[in-house]
Design brief:
The structure holds 2 protein chains of 2 kinds. Chain A is of the alpha/beta class. Helices cover about 35% and strands about 30% of the residues of chain A. Chain A has a 6-stranded mixed β-sheet, sandwiched between helices. A 4-stranded antiparallel β-sheet of chain A has the order 11-12-10-13. The radius of gyration of chain B is 18 Å and the shape is globular. Classes of the chains: A alpha/beta, B mainly alpha.
């Protein structure tokens, strides 16, 4: 499989603080990939390194098979939309398009104009006076019109109202359908990701908790509930991701390759949000335990 | 041309919802042989869903022999699901509407009507098997 982003022991340190540490992952191309995880997981740092905006302290990274900062050709292959969609407040929409044309060798001026027209943006308006939604769409236009093979979007809809968010995602999906561009986007809005992403990576503390096609994740995860029992007594091939118990009942979110056959258990399907939350709280629980263990020997 | 919609809370996978809606439209005679399905790009943009989801639904419908893709043009209906019964729909619908009015007059609310219909439907199906 051709990788959009592949890393090996990737790390980034700011003074004494590691924003990303020993991160090894492979994100395939040809998908719309959702990157989810709690704040501080290293998502933004990873995406900024992949876009060539940051140099890593340790480890290796390949983006579309090349090094992110290899040169202008590599930069032209990747479109990056930073958090909060930065634009030049004093420049007009038209100025931004001119700048895009000037800076990008493969700039598609027709595409940029068509998008601006469709989005109903005024060419003479100063970018600083655009609404949040319009600013995001201008920034996406600049990233798309350079005709990249990979679009990297860092929390593209986090600051948008629900309507602007929907419009941005509609626009993004149309772009994916038209141009077959690969997308890697981070987001906290798991509900959106369920619609737009076909591949998911859950990152907690620089570690991949689970990664795979959304369809496979949905097919292999189930919520089972039944009479209380020790999760360790479950048959082989079933991995418990999260468990809760009352005095009489156990409810488990499990991963299994085959169907769950046990007449005592009620099996129901789970959504992407349930799966993501289960892995995030599993990792959070593990970290709390590790900290406690570290503190004990004093 | 039909228009798709998605129920985000139904728990049914989006591609299955699209398939159901096409099958439903075929049954009700809203789609006929030769009609074009909405373009993948337009469905993706309209519903803000991944184009691969739409492609998957269309591929499945193609596999069932209900539609065929013409590369570069679009996806077209090639089969029917009404089984030649479409002509009978009108009178049956009128019967049902009369029955519904009767049920309402008897004081049944929507939920009771649905439950009654589902239970009658099930017992009829069981009799067919037996």
């Amino acid at each position: 499989m051709n990788a959009a982003i592949a890393t090996e022991g990737l790390g980034k340190r700011y003074r004494r603080l590691w924003a990303l540490a020993d991160c090894t992952l492979a994100i395939p191309a040809g998908h719309v990939v959702g990157l989810v995880g709690p704040n501080g997981a290293g998502k933004t740092t990873l995406l900024r390194i992949a876009a060539g905006m940051l140099t890593p302290t340790t480890g290796a990274i390949q983006v579309l098979g090349g090094r992110p900062v290899a040169g202008p050709e590599q930069l032209a292959r990747v479109g990056f939309l930073a958090q909060d969609a930065p634009v030049y407040a004093r420049l007009t929409v038209a100025d931004h398009l001119k700048l895009g044309a000037h800076l990008n060798p493969a700039w598609d001026a027709g595409l940029a104009r068509r998008r601006i027209g469709r989005l109903d943006l005024d060419l003479d308006q100063k970018a600083g006076t655009l609404s949040g939604g319009q600013r995001s769409q201008l920034a996406l236009t600049l990233a798309v019109a350079k005709r990249p093979e990979l679009l990297i979007l860092d929390e593209p809809v986090a600051s948008l109202d629900p309507l602007a968010r929907r419009e941005f995602l509609q626009d993004l999906m149309e772009t994916v359908a038209e141009q077959q561009v690969s997308v890697v986007m981070s987001s906290h809005l798991v509900g959106d990701l369920e619609r737009v992403c076909d591949y998911l990576v859950v990152l907690v503390a620089s570690r991949v908790q689970i990664a795979g096609p959304v369809e496979d994740l949905l097919a292999t995860h189930h919520l089972v509930s039944g009479p209380r029992r020790d999760p360790r007594s479950l048959p082989g091939g079933i991995t418990v991701i999260s468990a809760s118990h009352t005095d009489v009942q156990s409810t488990l979110l499990v991963r299994t390759s085959g169907p769950v056959f046990d007449p005592a258990w009620t099996v129901s399907e789970v959504g992407v949000e349930d799966i993501v939350l289960a892995y995030m709280s599993q990792a959070a629980g593990r970290r709390r335990r590790d900290h406690q263990l570290e503190e004990v020997p004093k | 041309m039909i228009e798709f919609h998605l129920d985000g809370r139904s728990g049914v996978a989006p591609y299955l919802q699209l398939i159901h809606q096409v099958r439903h439209a075929l049954r009700l005679g809203l789609l006929h042989e030769g009609d074009q399905l909405p373009k993948v790009k337009d469905v993706a943009a309209g519903l803000a869903i991944n184009p691969n989801t739409v492609l998957k639904a269309y591929r499945e419908l193609e596999y069932e022999g209900l539609v065929a893709a013409r590369p570069g043009i679009g996806t077209f209906v090639t089969g029917t699901l009404d089984g030649g019964s479409l002509a009978a729909h009108g009178p049956l619908r009128r019967d049902l509407q009369r029955w519904l009015a009767k049920a309402r007059r008897a004081g049944l609310d929507d939920e009771s009507i649905e439950a009654l219909f589902a239970s009658a439907f099930r017992s009829a199906a069981e009799q067919d098997i037996a």
